[in-house]
């Protein structure tokens, strides 16, 4: 039985701004088990990346976790000092960032950036770190690794830079890997190779993987479980089969309906009307109601609780009470 490696409970992440404090993540709870992939999906700006940066302890100086806990491997990271976080970051938990050209230091060689976590966390010398770095580059499929160790990020293609990021993230065999849009701006062939690399690493190291994406095709390919976010909140969660075959929230249905279906000649793409609200926009009730085609008066004034649909499938939507065809059970989650 898989056990929770990461358990985030009621986390609120806020930022200080010129107009006061605003919440980017609002009371979110989720878990990642050993050896599983949790995909976090939603439009750009819904809080996916802020959630991952909160877990990693990499929030900018004006951001902080105001409420909740982040339990990793039995320890609450919210209570950790910056020094304690540095000791586990890159060793027990690693992150593949969205854009490797900005994540990699442009004035340092690939070899230097690969050796750094190895020498820091494994307490080994430069020559041994170089040897292990070359092995890591081979592992992620980079040709002529000895040559690449001496090159700078701008000398590599986008796909190669992303492979270097994966090599750095895997250097110390982490227990948790967070991948933030790891296939963004890569062509389809390279995307598939990057996803295969992450999947192989998960199986090899028994890692838990938290993958952030807005590509539902990627979700269908790699996810064990799916968490759907909207405007800083978790609105639906369940195993990948349940989410794809029986989506309950209108927003989740909208995301799935916006994916082309080449097997159905009569399928028509459906865009979700409107746009994501600003981070500081005050919306009463369900935050999706201004864009929801099924919105009722109750949706505009009352925040829906979290209902259990079936098994681990949960959703926050008043339609669970209003429509028997949508609702599987009436059980409410009390946290």
Automatic annotation (TrEMBL):
PANTHER family: DIPEPTIDE TRANSPORT ATP-BINDING PROTEIN DPPD, OLIGOPEPTIDE TRANSPORT ATP-BINDING PROTEIN APPD. NCBIfam families: oligo_HPY. It comes from Rossellomorea marisflavi. One of its GO terms (molecular function) is ATP hydrolysis activity. The keyword Protein biosynthesis does not apply. The lineage of its organism: Bacteria, Bacillati, Bacillota, Bacilli, Bacillales. It is found in: Cell membrane. PROSITE patterns: ABC_TRANSPORTER_1, ABC_TRANSPORTER_2. Pfam families: ABC_tran, oligo_HPY. This is Peptide ABC transporter ATP-binding protein. Keywords: ATP-binding, Cell membrane, Membrane, Nucleotide-binding, Transport. One of its GO terms (biological process) is peptide transport. Belongs to the ABC transporter superfamily. Gene3D superfamilies: P-loop containing nucleotide triphosphate hydrolases. It is a peripheral membrane protein.
């Amino acid at each position: 039985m898989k056990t929770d490696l990461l358990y985030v409970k009621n986390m609120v992440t806020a930022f200080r701004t010129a107009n006061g404090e605003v919440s980017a993540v609002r009371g979110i709870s989720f878990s990642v088990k050993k050896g599983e992939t949790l995909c976090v999906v939603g439009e750009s700006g819904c809080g996916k990346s802020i959630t991952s940066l909160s877990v990693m302890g990499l929030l900018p100086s004006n951001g902080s976790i105001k409420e909740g806990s982040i339990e990793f491997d039995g320890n609450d990271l919210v209570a950790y000092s910056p020094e304690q976080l540095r000791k586990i970051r890159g060793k027990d938990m690693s992150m593949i960032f969205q854009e490797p050209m900005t994540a990699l230091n442009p004035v340092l060689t690939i070899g230097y950036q690969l050796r750094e976590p190895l020498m820091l966390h494994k307490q080994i010398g430069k020559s041994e770190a170089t040897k292990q770095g070359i092995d890591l580059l081979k592992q992620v499929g980079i040709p002529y690794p000895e040559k690449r160790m001496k090159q700078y990020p701008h000398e590599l293609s986008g796909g190669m830079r992303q492979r270097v990021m994966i090599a750095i993230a895997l250097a110390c065999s982490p227990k948790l890997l967070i991948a933030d849009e790891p296939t963004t701006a890569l062509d389809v062939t390279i995307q598939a190779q990057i996803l295969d690399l992450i999947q192989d690493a998960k199986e090899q190291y028994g890692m838990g993987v938290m993958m952030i994406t807005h590509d539902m095709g990627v979700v269908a390919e790699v996810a064990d479980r799916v968490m759907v976010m909207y405007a800083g909140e978790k609105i639906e969660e369940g195993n990948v089969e349940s989410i794809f075959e029986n989506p309950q929230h209108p927003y989740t249905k909208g995301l799935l309906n916006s994916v082309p279906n080449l097997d159905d000649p009569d399928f028509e793409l459906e865009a979700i009307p409107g746009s994501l609200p600003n981070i500081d926009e005050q919306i009463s009730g369900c935050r999706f109601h201004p864009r929801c085609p099924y919105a009722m008066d109750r949706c505009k004034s009352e925040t829906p609780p979290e209902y259990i649909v079936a098994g681990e499938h949960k959703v926050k939507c008043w339609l669970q009470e209003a429509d028997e065809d949508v609702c599987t059970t009436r059980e409410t989650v009390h946290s």
